[in-house]
Q: What sequence folds into this?
């Protein structure tokens, strides 16, 4: 690539505070823009609203099934009491759907209901890039809605422990630039009277409470980037299961967390196997209209591979809990592996098998020149309602080395 791209990109992103245009020593945020029709963005948001409705509805059912069913779906046994808690009206405050454009519609490959990132990029940075390129931001005005959503979720969570002046703490791993700055961004736009306390500085007393580094009891913990499935294995230097202690505090009402427990219930990719199974049976749990939505927007998903061997269809094997393409593998209908992410962090979790469809091809500009890549769409749900839309480009498996491709509306479209 000519030095012009590199210079323009460096100059532009260097002016944006507390952002991470590069990750893991590689270019992440592109100095390029994708232009979309406003009608197409409306279709994405309509699809996302319907998909979100299906996910949130099945949450009610999952809270009522036997423990054995939840264990078969791959939920860690230690989380079962936590899973049944319903602490907020919305099942997830901030969730992100990953979508693939397919045959003039969209397919949902997963929902990150518990700890989605890609937030600051779409709600804040995207508008800056659109201004730089002189186009309309397709997420115009949604940053305010995001701040209000975070604010309202914490206020509602405060009513659970019935604290008049609750101590609110936002937390993240301090050494992760992306996690830390995402959480600090949410803290800022929420306008809440709160503090940021790095995860390693939090202190916990079994059955009593969670405290900040000064020994002040915390009433509400905003944990946008701290996954529950990782938390349950946390131990202190003495071998105490401090992660489980934290879940016990939530269960006993001594601590409120956002995203709420129901977001972790939805995080499990096996939920899509439940949805598809109910759809296959034409189960009355879903209405005729909802079955139509599942047929259009969901992919055949199972807890075993037999369907794909019989149908000779290619499929994706992914862990029930996992992020950024980690531990994802792609197979042909004969069981031959054709692609796999090099990371295998989540191989101990229950496997989920989903029909494979190709990500659409796209051409984009980067420091490496003009490249061909595969396009993945992200659409956020704020309390279940569709909000910011954005794009990642990379390989067939979208991982932590995939690029962020800013996007705007085609000229003359609102």
A:
């Amino acid at each position: 690539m000519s030095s012009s791209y590199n210079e323009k990109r460096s100059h532009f992103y260097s002016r944006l505070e507390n952002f991470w245009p590069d990750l893991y020593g590689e270019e992440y945020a592109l100095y390029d823009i994708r232009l979309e029709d406003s009608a197409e963005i409306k279709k994405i948001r309509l699809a996302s609203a319907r998909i979100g409705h299906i996910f949130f509805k099945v949450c009610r059912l999952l809270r009522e099934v036997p423990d054995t069913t939840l264990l078969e779906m791959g939920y860690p046994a230690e989380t079962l009491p936590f899973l049944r808690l319903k602490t907020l009206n919305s099942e997830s405050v901030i969730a992100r759907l990953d979508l693939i454009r397919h045959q003039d519609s969209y397919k949902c490959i997963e929902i990150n209901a518990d700890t989605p990132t890609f937030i600051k990029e779409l709600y804040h940075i995207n508008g800056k890039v659109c201004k730089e390129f002189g186009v309309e931001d397709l997420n115009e005005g949604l940053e305010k809605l995001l701040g209000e959503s975070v604010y309202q979720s914490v206020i509602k969570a405060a009513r659970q422990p019935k604290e008049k002046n609750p101590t609110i703490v936002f937390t993240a791993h301090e050494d992760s630039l992306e996690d830390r700055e995402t959480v600090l961004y949410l803290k800022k736009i929420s306008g809440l009277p709160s503090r940021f306390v790095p995860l390693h500085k939090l202190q916990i007393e079994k059955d009593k409470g969670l405290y900040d580094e000064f020994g002040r009891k915390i009433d509400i913990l905003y944990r946008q980037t701290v996954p529950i499935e990782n938390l349950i294995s946390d131990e202190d230097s003495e071998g105490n299961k401090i992660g489980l202690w934290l879940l016990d505090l939530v269960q006993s009402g001594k601590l409120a967390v956002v995203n709420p427990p129901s977001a972790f219930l939805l995080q499990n990719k096996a939920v899509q196997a439940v949805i598809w199974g109910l759809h296959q049976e034409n189960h009355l749990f879903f209405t005729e209209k909802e079955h139509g939505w599942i047929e259009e927007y969901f992919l055949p998903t199972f807890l075993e591979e037999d369907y794909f061997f019989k149908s000779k269809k290619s499929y994706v094997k992914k862990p029930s809990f996992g992020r950024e393409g980690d531990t994802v593998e792609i197979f042909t209908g004969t069981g031959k592996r054709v692609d796999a992410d090099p990371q295998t962090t989540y191989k101990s979790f229950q496997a989920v098998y989903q029909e494979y469809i190709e990500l659409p091809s796209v051409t984009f500009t980067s420091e490496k020149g003009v490249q061909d890549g595969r396009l993945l769409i992200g659409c956020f749900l704020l309390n279940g309602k569709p909000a910011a839309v954005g794009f990642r480009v990379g390989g067939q498996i979208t991982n932590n080395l995939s690029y962020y491709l800013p996007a705007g509306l085609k000229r003359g479209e609102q």
Observations:
- Residues 158 and 166 are 6 Å apart (CA to CA).
- The chain has 13 helices and 23 strands.
- The radius of gyration is 21 Å.
